[in-house]
């Protein structure tokens, strides 16, 4: 998930501490039996072994954002075998599949496909075969679980009251692949979308989520602070950009500690500082860069504005000039990930019935990590949650770690949750689809 060079989702692992689970005494929980127990089906050896084989093949051959050509080819080959129609290419390497009636209502289930630019350090039989690339965020597992759901749903296609849209998305790790999927117009009739992210610190079969904000909006900034270089022994004849940049960094930290509401979580982190190449030479310029995050668009825009003001102002105090850039096409701002309240009720009902209510944590703490699933949620009611895939008897590892090791026993749970969330949503909404004049189409 989340993408973003290796900074983005690295902190996911810090949000899953013990928090209250809902229980039978929770008066707002209503239990509606699932029409089909997809978990039992997903655990059958012929399904489970098939998923494991797919996951390991993808893991061995990781591809970065918008380069997932072989991963996309594998997905299409499996969909062809299952007899599932699809659209390709979408957003360069993306694949959009369809199961069901081909008519409304439409519900989407999504998996991201891209890997990270890092060397895998886990020694096992199916280690990455590509130097410097690794599925360190579990997207290989995400693809596998969605294919598992596709296999199960295809076998029960006659029971589907509408259409399930399978979204195999490229470039979550910084490339904003979700936005490109939306821009392609392939989800214009979808009325809800669900997404799963693996949780390497959660027990297998446990899910964590919450209603409302669960992940922060995220952006990047980079600034070039220019002065006048010269010999370090005579600083009076120079204009020192390193000193200016140091003051900028200190001042940027005041944006959160002195200007932000303490109850409105925000982050400004400078993670890049480059300048100079000798011990006795003041450089002409330095480059700094980092990330900023917030849970609301208002706070995010305020941070963006103040970051620019502080950098320019503090540089000027030190007689330097500064230029700031905030994004380019490869690193768009990611909005906050905000779970829809109605879908939250649907999730905890379905997950509670499928897994048992003691395995469903609906009070997980929000994280300052970011995820491009948020782009979907800006235009479609959406719901995002975390699924436990903790490996027993292993030292704990986080996402975006070269030592990440996930427990494949979690695969059936993800496949079953995808299938259950989608089919029960359609069952509930197949007679409640609103018709918006000029926009609604009943077919694909």
Automatic annotation (TrEMBL):
What's the short name of a Pfam family annotated to this entry? Answer: Peptidase_M20
What's noted on cofactor binding? The Mn(2+) ion enhances activity.
Q: Which residues form the Peptidase M20 dimerisation domain?
A: 217-311
GO biological process assignments: auxin metabolic process
**Is Hydrolase one of the keywords UniProt gives this record?**
yes
The signal peptide, as residue positions, is 1-18
User: Could you say which residues bind Mn(2+) 1 here?
Assistant: 173
Q: Which residues bind Mn(2+) 2?
A: 137, 139, 197, 400
User: Example GO molecular function term?
Assistant: IAA-Ala conjugate hydrolase activity
Keywords of this entry? Hydrolase, Manganese, Metal-binding, Signal
What is a single cellular component term in the Gene Ontology annotation? endoplasmic reticulum
Family listed: Belongs to the peptidase M20 family.
PANTHER family for the chain: AUXIN CONJUGATE HYDROLASE (PTHR11014:SF148), PEPTIDASE M20 FAMILY MEMBER (PTHR11014)
Q: What's the protein name? A: Peptidase M20 dimerisation domain-containing protein
Q: Which organism is it from?
A: Canavalia gladiata (Sword bean)
């Amino acid at each position: 998930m989340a993408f973003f060079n290796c900074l983005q989702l690295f902190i996911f692992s810090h949000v899953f501490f013990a928090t209250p689970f809902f229980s039978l005494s929770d008066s707002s929980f209503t239990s509606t039996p699932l029409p089909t127990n997809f978990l039992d089906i997903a655990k059958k050896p012929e399904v489970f072994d098939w998923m494991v084989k797919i996951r390991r093949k993808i893991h061995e051959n990781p591809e970065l954002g918008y380069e997932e050509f072989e991963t996309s080819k594998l997905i299409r080959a499996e969909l062809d075998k299952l007899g599932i129609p699809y659209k390709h290419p979408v957003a360069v390497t993306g694949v959009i599949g369809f199961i069901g009636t081909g008519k409304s209502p439409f519900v989407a289930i999504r998996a991201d496909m891209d890997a990270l630019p890092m060397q895998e350090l886990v020694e096992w039989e199916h280690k990455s075969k590509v130097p410097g690339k690794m599925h360190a965020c579990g997207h290989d597992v995400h693809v596998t679980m969605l294919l598992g759901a596709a296999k199960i749903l295809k076998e029960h296609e006659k029971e589907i009251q509408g259409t399930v849209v399978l979204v195999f998305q490229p470039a979550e790790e910084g490339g904003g692949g979700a936005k490109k999927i939306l821009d392609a117009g392939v989800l214009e009739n979808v009325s809800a979308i669900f997404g799963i992210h693996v949780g390497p610190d959660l027990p297998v079969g446990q899910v964590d989520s919450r209603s409302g904000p669960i992940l922060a909006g995220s952006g990047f900034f980079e600034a070039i602070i220019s002065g006048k270089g010269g010999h370090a022994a005579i600083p009076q004849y120079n204009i020192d950009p390193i000193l200016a940049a140091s003051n900028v960094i200190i001042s940027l930290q005041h944006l959160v500690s002195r200007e932000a509401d303490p109850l409105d979580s925000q982050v400004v982190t400078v993670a890049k500082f480059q300048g100079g190449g000798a011990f006795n030479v003041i450089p002409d310029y330095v480059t700094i860069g980092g990330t900023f995050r917030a849970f609301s668009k208002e706070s995010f825009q305020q941070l963006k504005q103040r970051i620019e003001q502080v950098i320019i102002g503090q540089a000027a105090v030190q007689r330097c000039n500064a230029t700031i850039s905030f994004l380019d096409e490869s690193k768009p701002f990611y909005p906050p990930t905000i779970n829809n309240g109605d879908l939250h009720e649907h999730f905890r009902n379905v997950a509670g019935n499928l897994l048992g209510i003691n395995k469903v944590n609906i009070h997980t703490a929000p994280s300052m990590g970011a995820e491009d699933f948020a782009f979907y949620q800006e235009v479609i009611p959406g719901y995002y949650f975390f699924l436990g895939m903790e490996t027993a008897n292993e030292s704990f590892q986080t996402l975006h770690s070269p030592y990440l090791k996930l427990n494949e026993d979690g695969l059936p749970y993800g496949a079953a949750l995808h299938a259950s969330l989608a089919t029960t949503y359609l069952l509930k909404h197949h007679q409640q689809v609103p018709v918006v004049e000029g926009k609604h189409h009943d077919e694909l």
